Amino acid sequence: MSAHDQLVMYLCEITRLLWKLLLPLLLLCMLLVAVLVLLVLAVRLWLQSSRNARRAREGRPTVAFFHPYCNAGGGGERVLWCAIRALQNRYADINFVVYTGDLGVTGQQILEGARQHFNIVLPRPVRFVFLQHRVLVEPGLFPHFTLLGQSVGSIFLGWEALTELVPDLYVDSMGYAFTLPLFRYLGGCSVGSYVHYPTISTDMLSVVRERNPRFNNPDFISNSLFLSAFKLVYYCLFAVLYGMAGSCSDVIMVNSSWTLDHILSLWRSPNRTSVVYPPCDVSAFLDVPLEEDGDRKSHSIVSVGQFRPEKDHRLQIRAFKKVLDRRERSGVREGLKLVLIGGCRNQEDEDRVLMLRGLCQELGIADRVEFKLNVSFEELKRQMSEATIGLHTMWNEHFGIGVVQCMAAGKVILAHKSGGPKLDIVRPVDGGQTGFLAEDEDSYAEAIEKILALPPDSRLQIRRNARQSVARFSDQEFEACFLAAMEPLMGTLER
User: Fold this and answer.
1) Is residue 370 packed enough to be buried (19+ CB in 10 Å), middle (13-18) or exposed (0-12)?
2) Which class for 178: exposed (0-12), middle (13-18), buried (19 or more C-beta within 10 A)?
3) pTM for the complete prediction?
4) Which residue among 30, 105, 109, 476 has its CA within the 20 to 30 Å range from the CA of 13?
5) Does the pLDDT of residue 425 top 70, yes or no?
């Protein structure tokens, strides 16, 4: 028998063997699928029985908000407390729960923090479910494949939340989209979401595709064609999964036009999606007097934002250094200082502040830069009232509550030329200028010099325009839009 005939015979034998194994394999697959379906149904029945028992015990439905960092003191937390306050004022016969990972504080301390930071007092107490495994969504736990790691971690954290308490209505108010199918299909809950920032966006895909170095696209990746191609495939696959998870939401609220564009392209649910601008405490800053500042001997530039890498405080410090150098060369003796105000969520943020302080020392401007960490609302307002310029540098900021607050306080705002500030906030009012936009160290430095060189009456007119424009971002506007968006879900709750 020739070698060719032997090869053909072996191939035929292998084919017959595979054919014989095909039916058992199909049966095994069907059995595994059936076991999985039964397991899911059993878990769903168990969770629903837990919810029914709670309903019988409490006699009223429960709305739960998933916000693992509810004590962080940022703009997302202000949205949370304003949303709960609006629902409590409208619906007196519903219990409200917050899933949080803040283990070092009590519920009363969290509510007191909301009062101090945001001047928000809830009409009634809320119940806190303290989650033990928030570390699963910490970016530091996943030095590589961070998006995927945090998303998988959020599923486990969501499972912990679901097993602790099964609500009637679940609202993800922090952007953990992969918890939505968990609560909808296993918990049997109605599901809503408020999206501050998409976990992945088409802009992020563009950054990788164009091999543009950013804080989330380090040089060793952007400089490598192979790594960039691999990361692009990874991002594309993740975007598909993210869109599938997000589309599980019955009601989708987004905080800006920029976020709306990305969520529509990823979640593909236009009939369930609406823009609800976040609540900015506009009224609290309206009593800051609007007066000409021409007689000031010194000016301060104030920045409001959490100390996270994407806020790009390094850009602020370096641009400020350039301004000081230029003024020194020009012989300008008018005093100028930079005040960085923000919250620190964890040790990583505190370490980042130390690095920023080190940068100030390195540049020789430590005596001109002040850091104000986790300040009270009263201190925030005081710093705002003393400042001339409000500074913002985050690329593609989803909205920018700090930008609105600066404008309401009558500051001349200088924001990044992208995202929410560009599309929604720093827009002309009746043809009048409301602020300035920049995008790199040089353009920021030039804009600061231009603002300081303006005649006092011109600066005053810009400040007036800005204050007039921010009424559409008030607490009252947010509550009206939020309640209108939530009405279809709230109407499904049995009382």
Assistant:
1) middle
2) buried
3) 0.79
4) 30
5) yes
